[in-house]
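does this look right to u?? nicotinamide-adenine-dinucleotide version
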Amino acid sequence: MVLNFPASGRWISGSGQVLKTVNPATGDINAEIGTPSPEEIADACIFAHQSAASDSWRKLKPHERATYLYRISAAITEDAEDLAQAQMLENGKALKECRQQAASAAATFRYYAAACETLESIVPPNRGNYLTVTTYEPYGVVAAITPWNSPLTMEAQKVAPALAAGNAVVLKPSEVTTLPSLTLARICEKAGLPAGLLTVLPGYGRDIGPTLLARPEIRMVSFTGGTETGRAIAGVAAKRLIPAALELGGKSPHIILDDADIPAACDGVIDGIFEGMGQSCVAGSRLFVPRAKHDQIVAILVEKAEAIRLGQPTGPDTDIGPLSSHHHRDKVEEYVEAARKEGGIVATGGSRPVGAQFDSGAFYRPTIITGLTNSARVCQEEIFGPVLCVLPFDDEDDLVATANDTAFGLACGIWTSDYRRAWRIARSIDAGTVWINTYKQLSIAAPFGGFKESGIGREKGLQGMRLYQQAKSIYFATA
Ligand code: NAD
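got this back:
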């Protein structure tokens, strides 16, 4: 049975080529999903535009819009297991991580419902005989384009603030993970969200993206994905003169200073790279350690990496599942081979796990590589897999210069017992997020985004709602 998708106010099968999604843990087909033709994309955008412009959405007071978001949050909590299962089936993440992400999606809708009710307009200081009120208006229709690694959280992070801001959203999920987006759309419908405010257009980026972004109804694009795709989308947005918010790739430095609590730091490093099989934009993939402690730290990390339990995502004892696809595993393997050719020493991992339960899935062992310099290809390019490169440093200047010697600037972790050093280094690192004595803690209330080629704009927090609005200043004469 081919699954339908919500477009133009109903669930349609679409006349584009049918998309098949695959379970990376088993190689089985998960679902066959319809995709839209260019005409169906156009119709869906026109319908979304009408829905955004209709009085029943455009003229709602923010606290009235908030009620929809509260209801969606409650409906996500009710159907959290459906969302978690849908994501697990398609990207292979351990079920327990998928469940946490479903809970986080509910919290995101709740946060933006509250933001909707509390965000204020501005009355700027008066410079003449007039009173100015600055209001924030929606764009109309926002295109949201998302990757496969964490659709549950990434899509909530775009859909909730864009709706809270008064827009309609046309969501183009990754071709690898469409089921979670269809499940979210069902949940929104069940929560009473009016038709046309959330459209889902399944399909390959190259098929859907250019047609979608050329539509005049699309007035803003919010993209999360790879840097090269982001560059292409920014090019289209520049030609159309529409704003583009871009959350892109990373090659984040994780730093252990000589005064750190080494066992705690090593736990943080292991989670920071191997949780979710390294398929996280903020994965701490370059580890900087004091040269004198290099061997001691590598020995601890190897022991911890070898204790990680790989398995089927549903397994109660599974720490990490497979990579998201067999094709992606091939890419990870190529990177490890490239590291070997450049003189890298594989301290652990560097191969597929052996055993019947791993035979048909896209599994790969957590891998730690030493013996390279920061200029090696695996230290410069985003692998997006379970591969950690350990790099020794000599002093703080060398550390900061080398950590910043990358095209990316997404995140950084610092482990130290000296808060002054933590502050100094945190301020010197080019990154949108810095963690001190922790890693990968993320709050919906704090802005998130990248420096340099890791992106433009900030999602989350109150600015995450302003991202989907444009300021308008209205002047009233007072004399
Ligand atoms: P990708 O760039 O290949 O695809 C992302 C999305 O863009 C998919 O929906 C895809 O279909 C679509 N797309 C592809 N070509 C397009 C085009 N020409 N026009 C419009 N849409 C197009 O990325 P991916 O492989 O799905 O995800 C992995 C990447 O995402 C990694 O680089 C990772 O770092 C990044 N990522 C970044 C963040 C962040 O917040 N900074 C979060 C998660 C993932």
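The two ends are 69 Å apart (CA to CA). idk if thats expected tbh
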